[in-house]
Amino acid sequence: MMIDGNRRWARQLGYATAAHGHRAGAAKMREFLGWCDDVGVGVVSLYLLSSDNLRKRDGRELADLIEIIAELADGLSRERDWRVQIVGRTDLLPPDLARVLREAEERTHE
Fold first, then answer.
1. E strands in 23-85
2. In Å, how far are 27, 50, 51, 58, 66 from 17, measured between CA atoms?
3. What is the pLDDT of residues 35-79, one digit of tens each?
4. Alpha-carbon 3 to chain mean position
5. How many CB atoms sit inside 10 A of residue 58's CB?
6. CA dist 46 to 1, 29, 72, Å?
7. Is residue 61 within 8 Å of 91, Cβ to Cβ?
8. Measuring CA to CA, which residue among 33, 90, 21 is closest to residue 61?
9. Active-site residue (options: 6, 37, 38, 53)
10. Which among 4, 38, 81, 96 is annotated as catalytic?
11. Local structure of residue 93 (DSSP, 8 states)
12. Residue 4 catalytic?
């Protein structure tokens, strides 16, 4: 699942920052994963952040997005019997986000 359009959605609704859209996208992602779980879909891939996002986003928006991703990964690692498996270049991520992602992954692989 690739989440896209949250910034545009927030702008269209008149929100002051894109964080409102990113948080709505994260909430919808949780809902979507619940639906997948309910119907027996065993594996879902979530595309959360690109290297372009890291390079091209405004600093405040990127900070909000990183916080939202960290909250989402941590929360998902504590829900149901879901497993979090990180794929990609975590060495490009801010250290705090990389740490949260590793902890979420480790928690679900115990």
1. none
2. 17, 20, 21, 11, 14
3. 999 999 999 998 888 888 888 888 898 999 999 999 999 999 998
4. 9
5. 11
6. 5, 9, 11
7. no
8. 21
9. 53
10. 4
11. S
12. yes
